[in-house]
Amino acid sequence: MRLWRVEEAQRLVESELAADLAEVWARCRGDFHCLEKTPYDSALVGVGRWWAGPFTIGNRKLGEMPFFSLPPVTTCPGHTPFCLRWCYAIYEVANWRAHVREAASYLLSQRDDFVDVVLSYLAKIPHPVVRLHVSGDFYSRAYLEKWAEAAGRRPDKIFYTYTKSLDLIRRVETPENLVIHISADPYNYVKAVETWRELGRGLITYVYTPGEDVGPIRYILENTGAVLLLFLNHVQHAPRDDPRKIRTQLRATLGPQARRVVFDPEEFSSGPQCVQCGVCWRTAKYFKDPPYRKTWGIDMRRSTS
Ligand code: SF4
């Protein structure tokens, strides 16, 4: 297992480089000229087409959408043995600048001025949807409350994420434009079901590893009314097969229960990237009063089809 990546993440959090980068982001407050004057290259400090300070704008799966990430596992209090074996942030992100930026983002998130700082960068970019935690998770109540405040202050943007920090999301009130989905796996699915039944909102997501027992998937579908978003385990050491064949087999195995399963279109059928897809961020049921439809002309009736 590639757990040096987790140890490396912790070392970077303690590094002078990460501490200085967090300080620079806070001092420059959305001023890109200020960032340019630092000794750091643009991909590290976050200037140019694909960055806005601590936000990286886009990746292969998301499309052109800003995201904010933290170090993997060490910021995930709800991590399970599944994460250590399969988390793509451990096995697939192999860019040292991204690792330093995650560490600096964690340090930034601990500051009292975190909300003002991240909003200062978001004010400089037009993107209406922001993904939290391509890597990392809500690591404390105070940190979750900071994103709740940030989303509350920018009701014109949607912030969305997936979490295994199930105890935290049960305790903190969040605005509707902070969309939090429950991330289930073979180790936490019973608790994921309990959490969804208590909150009654959001998707439940599950990363399917080809060949594994579908018992947890059945349990989730039988014990909730949730839509289950199925991802495909695609890290390098996962078993491989044709995604369309896997989808067909799963549909046959699950029978009528498969009607409540959304097979991730990007992973099972080379479909659109998240910025176009929107299953995770423009689902009508999450937004009782949909100003977003007016703002962006979004047809929310297509939510989970
Ligand atoms: S369902 Fe759509 S929005 Fe959600 S992760 Fe997959 S591609 Fe992205």
UniProtKB/TrEMBL annotation:
InterPro entries given in the database record: Gp88
Pfam families: GP88
Domain of life: Archaea
Domain Gene product residue range list: 64-282
Protein name: Gene product 88 domain-containing protein
Organism: Pyrobaculum islandicum (strain DSM 4184 / JCM 9189 / GEO3)
